[in-house]
Amino acid sequence: MQRRTFSRAAGAALTLGVVGGRSGAQAQEKWPNRLVKIVVGFPPGQSSDTSARMFGEQLHRLLGQTFVVENRPGAGATLAAASIATAPKDGYAMALTSNGPLAIAPHLYKNLSYDPRKDFAIASTIAQAPLLITVNAASRFKTLQGLVSAGRAANQITYGSGGNGVTSHLAVKMFETATGTSYTHIPYKGTAPALNDLLGDRIDFTMESPAPLLPLVRDGKLRVLATTGSARYSELPDVPAVSESFPGFEAASWTAFAFPAGTPAAIVERLNDEVKRLLETPEFAQRMRTTGVEPFYKGSPDACGRFLDAEYAKWGDVVRRGEITLD
């Protein structure tokens, strides 16, 4: 495990409510009044880790306590999620998690130790990113329609992903259903080798998150045919969204802060309020965009719970339709 602390100086804690004669067990007078741990299921330097560090710095500024990132990579970020599902319900351990361990993994792993709909309190969504349908700059595919036409003609068009069952793999399966196409999947052990083969023109396309792709696109080495959000991606405003040709299509990755279920509602709601405040700050929102993600505030904790239910059902349907299984 690797930890990264944002500040060792602890300031005064902020008040959640007035004690008013209630016992300490009944009243959550102060949160936080000591270090808060943010568990991330990916190594340092990846997008989720970067977001956790950005929020940790600002939460320290707003709440006066130290926030420390603990990296627990492995098993598609399910190890990190599992550690929070069984953590103390006191508000001092939370996950920065995503659609992978919460909405996809439960449909792929038979022996997952947690139920995301029962074992977590989603405090707030924080970021969302479309996937980019990307080809080599020298590719014969110049438009999304050209790629769709080839996929309908069963021309053995290949795409790479970071492995079986990852978001990019499932997003292509969703795309196939929406467009009536069929492509040949080449799974890799991570995104980097897939991109190496895309750059080497050994596969036809990828459908990956923006962070690793944007520098290569801006250098003219790759070309984006379309994005998969509900609207055009702010970093590539001239690139069409798939939904412009296939209404209703959306396949985005997202991240959220989650506490163990049973964490006092006042703590969950307080974090939601602070996240909302940060995402509405133009300077902070722009910092997020520079990392390849869009600020994404879905609403109250209850609204986030409903959002998770919808995502759980959506990605579960993709897994079932695609008959995707993992050993």
Characterization of the model:
By secondary structure, the protein is α/β, with parallel strands linked by helices. The protein contains eleven helices and twelve strands. It has a seven-stranded mixed beta sheet with strand order 1-3-2-4-11-5-12, sandwiched between helices. Strands 8-7-9-6-10 form a five-stranded mixed beta sheet. Strand 2, helix 1 and strand 3 form a beta-alpha-beta unit. Helix 6 packs across helix 11. The relative contact order is 0.17.
Q: Number of folding domains? A: 2
Which percent range describes the beta-strand content?
Answer: 15-25%
Count of runs of 4 or more consecutive helical residues: 11
Runs in which pLDDT lies below 50 for 5 or more consecutive residues are 1-27
> What is the rounded Rg?
21 Å
Give me the secondary-structure category: alpha/beta
CATH architecture of the largest domain: 3-Layer(aba) Sandwich
